[in-house]
Amino acid sequence: QVQLVESGGGSVQPGGSLRLSCAASGSFVAISNMGWYRRLPGKSRELVGRITHSGATTYGDSVKGRFSISRDNAKNTMYLEMNSLKPEDTGVYYCHANIRIHTFDEYWGQGTQVTVSS
Predict the structure, then answer these.
(1) CA 93 to chain centre
(2) So what's the pLDDT on residue 58?
(3) Backbone angles phi, psi at 41, to 5 degrees
(4) How far is the CA of 31 from the CAs of 36, 47, 95, 96, in angstroms?
(5) Which residue from 73, 36, 78, 31 is spatially nearest to 58, judged by alpha carbons?
(6) Alpha-carbon distance 96 to 101, whole Å?
(7) Among the four 13, 51, 68, 95, which has the fewest Cβ within 10 Å?
(8) Do 82 and 66 contact (CB within 8 A), yes or no?
(9) Cα-based distances in Å from 6 to 15, 42, 92, 113
(10) Residue 38: which of 109, 116, 94 has the closest Cα?
(11) Residue 79: predicted pLDDT
C-alpha cells in the first residue's frame, strides 16, 4: 500500500518560515510529478506548486518568490520551504504525487495544518 505522509506543519508568526516534508512509502516502481496543494479557510483547494522528477518547478502566483519546492528522489521525499509567511497562508497543506505500481495513479497525503498568526 502506497502512502504519502506530510510532516512539518505548525504555527508560526507572520514573516516566519516553515519547512514541510512529504515522504512516499510502500511498494511502487516510480514517482513522476509531485506537488503541494492547500485548502485555505472557506476556499477550494489550490495549487501551491509542482515539481517534476528532474526537478523543474512551477508555482502558484500567490506564493512565487516566497515558497520553494525541492525533492530527494533517493529518499522518495519532497519538501516545501515556506518563507515570509503571511496570515493568508493559513490552511491545510496536502502532498500529491503520481506514483506507478502497475500504472501511474494519483495519491494524496492526509494534510498538515499551517497556521500563521501573531
Answers:
(1) 6
(2) 98
(3) -55, 125
(4) 15, 19, 13, 11
(5) 36
(6) 16
(7) 13
(8) yes
(9) 22, 22, 11, 10
(10) 94
(11) 98
Residue percentage of the chain with pLDDT more than 70: 100
CB 52 within 8 A of CB 71: no
Q: DSSP string of 26-90?
A: SS-SEEEEEEEEEE-TTS-EEEEEEE-TT--EEE-TTTTTTEEEEEEGGGTEEEEEE-S--GGG-
Residue pair 99/105 in contact by the 8 Å Cβ criterion: yes
pLDDT tens profile 15-73: 999 999 999 999 999 999 999 999 999 999 999 999 999 999 999 999 999 999 999 99
Say how far apart CA 58 and CA 11 lie, in whole Å.
26
d(CA 97, CA 33): 6
Whole-number average pLDDT of the chain? 97
Find out whether 79 and 71 touch, Cβ atoms under 8 Å: yes
Looking at residue 71, its pLDDT comes to 98
Q: Which grid coordinates are listed for 95?
A: 502532498
